[in-house]
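> call design_seq(struct)
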C-alpha cells in the first residue's frame, strides 16, 4: 500500500558551529501516512560521546567546545554531562547511520525548524567518525542492497509557518517563526513531562503536531 513518509528531526548540540561543537542528542518521529491511517515510530538517540573536561577557558565535551548558552537552552548542564554514561563515538555514529539508512527512504520528507542546521551537524558528526556523510544524507549512500540514489525532500517548518503567517491565517508573536511561537499561534500545548522539555525528542513531537496543523490550514480536507 502506498504511503508518504515524514521524518520529523531535531538535534541538541553543544553549540552552533558543527566544526567546533558536537551532537548531544538526535530525536526523530517517523510518520508513515497511509490512506487509512498513520503508523508512528519514535526514536531518541543519545550521543554521550566524550567525557566533559575542564580546560583553561571554554569547557570541552571531549575535543569539542561547549557553548553554555546552548546548554541552558536545551536543558543540559555541565553537571549532567559529567554524569552521562559514555558511548564510543564510533558506536554512536554506527547507530545514527543505521537509523538514517533504515528510515530515510526514497521520497521521504525530513521536516524540522531549520533542517539544514540539523542535517549539517549530523553530516559533520558522521564525517568525524569515518562515514562519508554526504553519501548518507546526500543522495549517494549505498544501502544494504548496494543501491545508490536515495533521495529525500526537506521542509523548513519555520518557513512554512512564516508563509502562513504572512497570508494572515496565523499570528506569530513578534513575527518570529520559532517553534515556541508556532505552537502558541496554533494553540498547541506543551507536553506535561518537564524532563523532556527542549530535548530533541520533545521538540520533534511538537514539530510533528505543528506541521500537520499547518498543512490542514493550507490544504484542508474536504468534508464527506
Amino acid at each position: 500500500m502506498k504511503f508518504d513518509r515524514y521524518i520529523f528531526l531535531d538535534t541538541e548540540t553543544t553549540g552552533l558551529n558543527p566544526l567546533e561543537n558536537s551532537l548531544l542528542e538526535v530525536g526523530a518521529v517517523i510518520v508513515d501516512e497511509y490512506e487509512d491511517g498513520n503508523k508512528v515510530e519514535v526514536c531518541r538517540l543519545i550521543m554521550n560521546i566524550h567525557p566533559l573536561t575542564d580546560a583553561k577557558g571554554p569547557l570541552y565535551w571531549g575535543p569539542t567546545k561547549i557553548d553554555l548558552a546552548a546548554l541552558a537552552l536545551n536543558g543540559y548542564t555541565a553537571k549532567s554531562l559529567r554524569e552521562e554514561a559514555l558511548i564510543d563515538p564510533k558506536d554512536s555514529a554506527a547507530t545514527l547511520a543505521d537509523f538514517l539508512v533504515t528510515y530515510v527512504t526514497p521520497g521521504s520528507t525530513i521536516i524540522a525548524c531549520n533542517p539544514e542546521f540539523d542535517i549539517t551537524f549530523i553530516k559533520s558528526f558522521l564525517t568525524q567518525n569515518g562515514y562519508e556523510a554526504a553519501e548518507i544524507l546526500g543522495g549517494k549512500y549505498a544501502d544494504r542492497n548496494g543501491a545508490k540514489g536515495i533521495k529525500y525532500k526537506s521542509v523548513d517548518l519555520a518557513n512554512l509557518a512564516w508563509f502562513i503567517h504572512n497570508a494572515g491565517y496565523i499570528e506569530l508573536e513578534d513575527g518570529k517563526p520559532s517553534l515556541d511561537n508556532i505552537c502558541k499561534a496554533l494553540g498547541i500545548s506543551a507536553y506535561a513531562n518537564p524532563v523532556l522539555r527542549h530535548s530533541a525528542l520533545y521538540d520533534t513531537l511538537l514539530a510533528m503536531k505543528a506541521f500537520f496543523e499547518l498543512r490542514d490550514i493550507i490544504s484542508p480536507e474536504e468534508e464527506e
